[in-house]
Amino acid sequence: MKRVALLRHRGYELPALKETMLRGLDGIGFSLTSFRGARVVLKPNLLSASLPQSAVVTHPHFFRAAAEIVIDHGGRPVLAESPAVSSLGNALKTAGYAPVIKDLGIPVADLSKIGKLSYPAGRRMKSFEITRAFFDADMIVNLPKFKTHGLTYITAAVKNLFGAVPGLRKSQMHLKFPEKDDFCSFILDLYGAFLNGFDPSKTMVHIMDAIIAMEGEGPGTTGRPRAMNAVIAGLDALAVDWVAVQVSGLDIRLCTTLTEGFQRGFGITSGEEVGVVGETIEEMRVHDFREPQKPGATRFLRVPLIHRAMKNLFTDRPVPVAGRCTLCYQCMQICPAHAIGRAEAGERTPRFDKSACIRCLCCLEVCPEEAISLNKGPLRWMMQ
Ligand code: SF4
Ligand code: SF4
User: What single DSSP character describes residue 105?
Assistant: First the structure.
């Protein structure tokens, strides 16, 4: 049985948040003495340069509470994260992390230093280039934000580790695995590598920011902040994610990182192996939590979308919205399929080439202006 602490918590005020985290760590039987003398990587979700209230990023006070706990107990924290598109410096500044790391003297991992993590049992990939700081650490404290995700349905503890892959290597992975199932399988390979690829293996603890989560068209600014008022902690990422999904009321069958993770036996094989301490799932359940639009398409349609023409008919495609777009071209930088080009004279949005688009929705994730909407494929529109 994997223990997961599910704790009610409203707001991001310190020191109350720190106390809740300490209760969570105690609830899962984590010994704080293991921080003593340890180099501890703190891995928040800093998807992009977004304000804390947007719910795109792990809240800076959440990060601060975890960092202070590590320091109070003799550990040496290092922040390791690679945003999808903006520079790390920009993301740290906009998301409110800059004063925290300055106050606490926390170094930031150098993203140009890379290590190779092997996982021969991987199904889609057997070797991963990740930020070197993860190799140098004794322990990893994963600090995911609970959000919906247009491609993978949710992003939580398992998916948060994707940020260990630095910079634009991430969008190359989207190009390599454009379909949801393949991409989730790749994410699970990466998780398997974190569990089995280090020698000696590293303790990982997952503390999820589900206080203000994200619903709808996440994980970027097109999603909507939604109060879940929960801090969820555990030593097993699948177990933590399973609890978060149960609380949100989202459809577990669409969470491929969970369903395939269970099949692959990464720690647990079903939700029945999770022991929840603190509040009960029923007490914490939120109602009408909005799921992302895109996975709905595959729910009605269980045939493989192999051909591009079929894909164009059935899947939603990103469309830039004139009037909101500021022509910052962050979407163009991230697009792994080079399907976005510069606007021509007089045009107010970049040019999107729908035939080249692989529907990874990276552009939607990174657009800082909520200037990309999803147009339904014509057959999907008719079916609905
Ligand atoms: S246009 Fe957007 S959804 Fe299409 S491939 Fe590029 S980043 Fe992905
Ligand atoms: S659609 Fe968004 S990301 Fe792309 S250029 Fe416009 S504002 Fe920037």
Answer: T
Ligand 1 centre and the CA of 370: distance in Å? 15
* Proximal ligand: closest to the CA of 352: 1
| Atom number of ligand 2 nearest to Cα 324 | 7
Q: Which residue's CA is the closest to the ligand 2 atom numbered 8?
A: 328
CA 125 to chain CA centroid, nearest Å: 19
Q: Please name the amino acid found at residue 322.
A: A
- The sign of the CA dihedral 271, 162, 122, 294 is positive
Question: What pTM does this model have?
Answer: 0.84
Percent of the chain with pLDDT over 90: 79
Q: Which fold is adopted by the domain 2-284?
A: Rossmann fold (3.40.50)
Tokens coding 108: 């930031």
State whether the Cα torsion 284-188-335-48 is positive or negative: positive
284-318: pLDDT as tens digits: 999 999 999 854 444 333 344 445 555 566 567 89
The confidence score (pLDDT) of residue 135 equals 98
Q: Output the pLDDT for position 306.
A: 45
Per-residue pLDDT tens over the stretch 270-292: 999 999 999 999 999 999 999 99
Looking at residue 295, its amino acid is P
Q: Any idea which fold 294-383 has?
A: Alpha-Beta Plaits (3.30.70)
Cα distance between residue 20 and residue 6, in whole Å: 10
Alpha helices in 161-286 (DSSP H): 169-176, 180-196, 237-248, 256-264, 281-284
Buried/exposed 127-138: b ≥16 CB within 10 Å, e otherwise: ebebbbbbbebb
pLDDT for 366 equals 85
Virtual CA dihedral for 353, 355, 360, 362, nearest 10 degrees? -10
Place of tokens 């992003």: 155
Q: Which has the closest alpha carbon to 169: 116, 218, 123?
A: 116
What does the pLDDT look like over 139-152, one tens digit per residue? 999 999 999 999 99
The two three-digit tokens of residue 85, written as one number: 């598109």
Residue with CA nearest ligand 1 atom 6: 335
Reported as a single tens digit per residue, the pLDDT across 5-43 is: 999 999 999 999 999 999 999 999 999 999 999 999 999
User: Do the Cβ atoms of 54 and 142 come closer than 8 Å?
Assistant: no
Output the DSSP codes for 119-144.
Answer: -TT-SS-SEEEEETHHHH-SEEEEEP
Domain ranges in the chain are 2-284, 294-383
Tell me which residue has tokens 């322990």. Answer: 139
